[in-house]
Specification:
427 residues, DNA polymerase, domain 1, TIM Barrel, 9-stranded mixed β-sheet, binds iron/sulfur cluster
């Protein structure tokens, strides 16, 4: 019965930023030191295959996969012993061979404004971050896609780190599972009726109706560029959106890219979530400096890809993120140019103005509140929504990358050297 499981083929290594995994990383099977296989992050048919490879009859493997999948994603169960509709003799067989993992929590912080932040660790010891931001009408989980980043956006703390590796689908969906654990959002043991009720509340788009849950939205806006880890992000989000999985509507999920133009259409077609773009500047000179991928894919190319984004409409607008940097990108002329560009490409747009949250070693300052207000007014008067994001979790350094790097202080010279290496890699 103890059939060894095949290991998945590893993609080839790529030394520079690209739309295929930049570094070698296991794809669909996370091998554990104890030889057990982590089922988290695997689609249901793959679980059935693995059960069959481990010795179950195909029909039984399919049935067990359906049961286990339900326990994982609907009930948040990590212990096979708690899976009460699986035969008692079967449960130790599963536990000997498989595990349902979670990222390890290294640090957990709770801001006075309700924002929660976690520093997490992968099974092979790499650290990454996740943030939960509760608002009056929603609770948003900011999820990471990579450990570090190949890009080097100059205002971003994560950009000062090297890319260590892509996160696997299990490590990405594991963040959502962990947040639901922490928020106590799984039905408790014996609350089968609640589980059934939850199922009934899933609308035909696969999303929750207003049912009092805290975690209602997901943004792929944490560490890393999600479109440089496309396959794993797609695999994870499919589990999040699956009506038999976490059942969150694609309308409640937003993927944020710095502008990986060749992958944007594919993202809209194959994942179908909302799009956010880290624009941050409206001239080539400034965007080349603060979002260096602009040297590869310029503003016009990027905005055309936004105009072509499948599914974008007035009811599903594209969000343009714009960090407010004093004397860099915050003049009235910049605001007027932003309006002109959004009109030129006829974009169903909203603009998110983000007051810069400085970090140790940052070379920029935040624009003054008065400047930000004036910038917002110009865009708003042109008929485009331009809210100013309220800084959250400042008492816990909730900006991306700050928790991880607080223990990894680099000198200015080291930061500059790393920035040069990354820019050379972009070509
Ligand atoms: S903003 Fe995003 S893409 Fe740019 S360096 Fe930071 S994590 Fe990477």
């Amino acid at each position: 019965m103890d059939t060894p499981l095949p290991t998945s083929p590893l993609p080839t290594s790529m030394p520079i930023a690209g739309h295929i995994d930049p570094v070698v990383t296991a794809r669909d099977i996370t091998a554990r030191a104890d030889g057990r296989v982590d089922l988290l992050g695997l689609p249901r048919p793959r679980i059935a295959e693995i059960f069959a490879e481990a010795g179950l009859e195909p029909k039984q493997a399919k049935l067990r996969a359906k049961q286990v999948y339900h326990w994982i994603y609907h009930r948040g169960v990590t212990d096979f012993e708690a899976m009460t509709d699986i035969a008692k003799t079967m449960r130790p067989w599963l536990a000997e061979r498989f595990v349902i993992g979670r990222p390890e929590i290294v640090v957990s912080q709770h801001s006075e404004d309700g924002t929660r932040k976690w520093l997490l660790r992968t099974d092979d010891g790499h650290e990454f971050e996740m943030v939960f931001i509760p608002d009056a009408d929603r609770g948003t989980l900011c999820v990471s896609s990579q450990v570090g980043c190949t890009l080097n956006c100059r205002f971003c703390h994560t950009g000062t780190m090297r890319l260590v590796r892509n996160l696997t689908p299990g490590e990405i969906v594991g963040q959502v599972m962990l947040a639901r654990d922490a928020l106590g959002e799984w039905p408790k043991a014996g609350q089968a009726d609640l589980a059934a009720l939850t199922d009934d509340l899933v609308d035909d788009e696969g999303g929750y109706s207003p049912d009092g849950r805290l975690l209602t939205n997901i943004v792929m806006m944490g560490m890393g560029e999600p479109l440089y880890n496309f396959d794993n992000v797609k695999g994870a989000l499919k589990l999040v959106m699956d009506g038999d999985g976490l059942a969150l509507s694609k309308r409640r999920i937003t993927l944020s890219t710095s502008g990986v133009v060749p992958m944007m259409e594919k993202c809209g077609e194959e994942i179908g979530v909302n799009l956010a773009v880290s624009l941050h500047a409206v001239t080539k000179e400034v965007r080349d400096e603060i979002v260096p991928i602009n040297r590869k894919y310029g503003i016009e190319e990027l905005l055309q890809a936004c105009a072509d984004y499948p599914g974008a409409s007035n009811s599903r607008r594209i969000t343009f993120e714009y960090v407010m940097l004093k004397d860099k990108n915050d003049t009235d002329e910049h605001a007027h140019e932003l309006v002109r560009l959004l009109r030129q490409y006829n974009l169903p747009a909203k603009v998110n103005l983000i007051p810069f949250n400085p970090w140790p070693g940052a070379i920029y300052e935040c624009s003054t509140p008065e400047r930000i207000r004036q910038f917002s007014n110009i865009i708003f008067e042109a008929g485009i929504s331009a809210p100013v994001r309220t800084p959250r979790g400042r008492d816990i350094d909730a900006a991306c990358g700050q928790l991880k790097t607080s223990a990894q202080k680099m000198s200015r010279a080291e930061l500059d050297r790393l920035a040069e290496e990354k820019q050379a890699a972009l070509g």
